Amino acid sequence: MNPLAAGILAYVLIGLELALRPALGLGDTGVAPSLVLPLVVFVAMSAQAPQALWMGLLTGMAVDLLTKFPRAAADPITVTLIGPNAIGFLAAAYVTLTLRGLMIRRNPLSLVALTLAGGALAALIAVALITLRAQFDSAMLWSPTRELLSRLGWAAYSSAVAFVLFYVLRALSGVLGLADTSSRRYAR
Amino acid sequence: MARSLSSSRRPNASMPVMVLGLVLLSLLPARWIGFIGWFGGVAQTLLAPIEGPVSTAVRSLRGPARLDDETDPRLREITAELERTRLLRLQAEDENRRLRERIVGMQRGIDLNPALDIRQFVASVINLQPDPSGTLLKIRAGAAQGVTTDAVAVFEDVHLIGRVVSTDNLISYVLPIVDRASGVQDAAIMIDEGGSAGEGLASAVRCSLTPTTEGRLAGPVEYQPVRPGMVAPEIKPGQIVRLVGSQWPPAARLLVVGRVERVDMATNQRPMVTVKPVYDLRALGEVIVRFNGSPDSSARPGGAGGAP
Q1: How far apart are CA B274 and CA B217, in angstroms?
Q2: Mutate to test the interface with A, among B6, B42, B50, B131 (most CBs of A within 10 A)
């Protein structure tokens, strides 16, 4: 994998994700897709394990850094948590590494299924970590059930977007250093 | 094969240490991890070249999305002008009342309130946050422009969007009024919004609103004793709701919170209102930041504002 190209692509996708979030959000639910999660999964489908895991961790850290959580009647009134998404995205990369042997890499549905699985696991981990924190930080306004449902919706929506994104990522796989060298049409 | 797979899957030793460190960081008290916000500001700045232009293009295509049914642009313009005029009138009435009280106070030798010096300017909305739970609105105005944590964000001069809860040098974060962290808001349902001067606020019905999960505010209406010969105020959908509580900065007083969407009866026969904001904050391209410009403002930049 070419780390520089992957980093630049992640940077562009996070920027696009933020910019398109109001347009792609689902009504009052506020559920919007992640564009960077399919990238993490796509990389993990082809790259070496350490590279895939670091990609997941660093991308999740970037998402964490860009999020402030409001706190009720407390000082400081907002907090930036680094960890929930970083570990969640790391887990998404890991689950992809574990399952990729069972998938057909050329099939866009593989990316869809792995994004759904990875996203659901990332959601579960992020909610578990923040819920644990909320146990002793009473100023955190956190409803685990609602957040988990919202994040599972996010994982499902992201996996749907992954179908479209697959063709873009596949076209860029040469630049990313993830080109499939196999000549077989249905190669794994 | 198995050996090569297992060795290719093994990351170096720094990964577990990193994960452990991140778990600890995400559990530490908020005061101890305040420094992470600085890195967040840097990440935000780095993303601005991509996020800004695309976001502006997307919003210009969509336009501000009103959440009510008004679609005629000319009528919308007239309504907006009318709402601005009403706000000015109500604020003048409120100021009159406040000054009268102040005169009484000064006659007793007490200076009740310093004069308000409200400043405002237009700031473009950058966006929401990437985390699914992120609800704060980012705006392109920060401590460098004098924005402090007692500033409020409004749209079209009269519609309250939220309150600034954190400021970096060039960016501020607005807590939307419909966010659960905003807490309970004291508001007034304007029964006679278009009535003659003096009747507007006098006939308003007070209520305590709490944000709901659907981007609305809901709460009970205060008990109104009906004297003989007096007609009980009728609360109905469409009526304007304005902020009157003292929990918010003075610059937010009497701004429009939204319109009554639904009136239900609670088990104790007290009306419960659901209020819907007029604009969808996710579709706003710019907001007006309004804050107290007096030097004795108690708020300070950096996100350490007072309680909501």
Answers
A1: 6
A2: B131
